[in-house]
Structure formats: structure tokens, C-alpha cells
Here is the input.
Amino acid sequence: MQASIKYIRKELAGVYPKEEIEGFVRLLFQHLKNYQLTDLLMKADEQLSPEETEQIKTIVDRLKQHEPVQYILGETEFFDLPFQVNQHVLIPRPETEELVQWILNQYAGTSPTILDVGTGSGCIPISLKHKLPEANIWACDISEKALETAQANARLNDTEVHFFEMDILHPQLPEAFPALNVLVSNPPYVTESEKEQMHPNVLEFEPSGALFVPDHQPLLFYRALADFAKKHLSQTGSLFWEINEAYGEACIALLKEKGFSNVQLKKDINGKDRMIFATCSTI
Ligand SMILES: C[S@@+](CC[C@H](N)C(=O)[O-])C[C@H]1O[C@@H](n2cnc3c(N)ncnc32)[C@H](O)[C@@H]1O
Here is the structure.
């Protein structure tokens, strides 16, 4: 094992910072052999099979091409739960965990009806259902392939979520769709002109339909979500959205213009305007 660890460190030096390479070493051996950090030390002399050595080479080659390690291994964690990921879904981000936590802070111990729009891997509804087992949870996406992945993740985590295909820009709901207590969404919100500042691992590997909006319509999805919320949230319902840090004030103005109350902007752990909340009524 020692020789393989040396190989990983040598091949990736100069491509990634040292700490990141150590992170890859841990993830790789956890994935291949279910080894934790202590196993790496205790079993350093263990011989890997030729297949394992070959697998490590392939993974290192893909890492050198800047492919995200989560796609290479096909898995990640969100809210301490395992999720399968692939090129059809965005890799769940820590900021989105903060959005889920904000909802849980308000709805712990209750059984709300919730819809997640643009569910991707299903990370939001599945972690909500895990923490709110009595909740009635729905989730939609425009991408059939993303929905397949989300469904697989619901099975993996033994949670019941009602998934359906829908374009939020032209919404058509399943029959007997219930009134909602919560509308949550992390829609595409990166403007085309922000592409230049993005890392190749995001640009070349993550699905562009999950990320981008045209420069001239940065609030495209938020407008559609606000109109949808007006129709389908119950009188005491609320919405929770992840937002582009540059459009916090614009989102506040949009929600006020559409008649929402109690509008609150929240910063993420990095101090950036990242989430917004609003209610239908003033109570
Ligand atoms: C930023 S990703 C968020 C994925 C996941 N909710 C998360 O937080 O990791 C946005 C998602 O919205 C979906 N999407 C894009 N356009 C859509 C549309 N018009 N209607 C519904 N979903 C859409 C994408 O397929 C993608 O899964």
C-alpha cells in the first residue's frame, strides 16, 4: 500500500495542493478497501492486488484531468448521508447543507409538505426526509437522468420521496398535488459571464444545465419559483432558496414585489449572501 500512496503523492504533486492530495489518498482507500486513516498507518505494508493497483492508476489519471473525485468514485456525502453522483447531477455543496439546516431549524418535529425544485442528486429532499420522517416530500427536475439518480439515492438512504419530471419555467403538476408548506430550491444561478472565474473541474465536468442562467436573466428561475409559490404554497407556507451571492438584494426586491412577507437573507459559512427565506402571509 505504501508504494501506491507514494505513487499518488508523486503523480499529483504540482497538480493539487498537498492537503487536497492527502484528502484524495484517504477517499481512495476508503472507497477501494473501506480503510480509515488509522488503517492506512497500521496496514502500510499490505500488498495491493494488481487490479487494485490498476484502479488507482486510472483514478490518478482522471484526477490529473481535473475530474472531480466525487464523479470518479461515483459517490459523495451530504448531511452525513451517502449519495451516488454522476455527470447528470451537480455535486452537492456544503452551502446547500446550510440551506437544509435552516429548514430543519424551523420545522423540526413537524410533518410539513415540501417540494424541492431542481433536485439533482436528491440531496435536499432525501436529507429532509431523513430528519423529518413524517414529512410529505416531493421533488422535481427537468432532467430525467438526474431523477433516475435521485431515485437511486432515495433507495440507498431508505427514504420515501415523490419524484416527478417538471420544467419550472412551464410547470405542469401531477394530479392531486397537495398544497405546500415549504418550497425549497437551489436552481441554476451562475451567470454566463461568471464562467471565467470558475475552475475547470466545474466547467468541464458538471452539467451546465444545472449551473447557468443567461446574463440578461439572472433571476429567471427565481421569478418562476415566486409565481409557482404564490399558487401552490399554503397561506402559512414559506420558501427557502439558495441564491447567487451577487443577487441578494435583487431577490429581496423580487419577493417584495410579488407580495411575500418576512423576507430574510442569510449568509453562508464564508460570509456570502447565499440563502433567502420568505413567507406568504405576514404571520
Ligand atoms: C444547481 S442544481 C441543484 C441540484 C441539487 N438540488 C443540489 O442542491 O445539489 C439545479 C438543478 O435544477 C435542474 N433544472 C435546470 N433547469 C430546470 C428547469 N427548467 N426546471 C426544473 N429543474 C431544472 C437541473 O437539472 C439541476 O438538477
